[in-house]
Amino acid sequence: MPQQQTPEGQQGFMPEPPRLMTSKDQLYITDMMSWNLLASKKCNFYAKQCQDPEVKAAIEKAASMHTRHYDQLLQHLQSHLGDQPQNQNMTQ
């Protein structure tokens, strides 16, 4: 599928991600996982401190969202790590 023409210096829309995941991609996903895990932990901590049930429910919902995003990223990372050949030492 051809990419759309865009002004110079901008990249076109990619309808689906490439099957190959670079080490830079893996590091970025790992960073996103760390951010989501930290956000989930903070939300859970602050939800326990809340007295207002509506605020507590909203913060718990945010914690669940971050946990869900973490799990989705983990599944994506694991599926790509299983598809790619491992970099093995060829010396014997």
Automatic annotation (TrEMBL):
<protein>
    <recommendedName>
        <fullName>Spore coat protein</fullName>
    </recommendedName>
</protein>
<feature type="region of interest" description="Disordered">
    <location>
        <begin position="1"/>
        <end position="21"/>
    </location>
</feature>
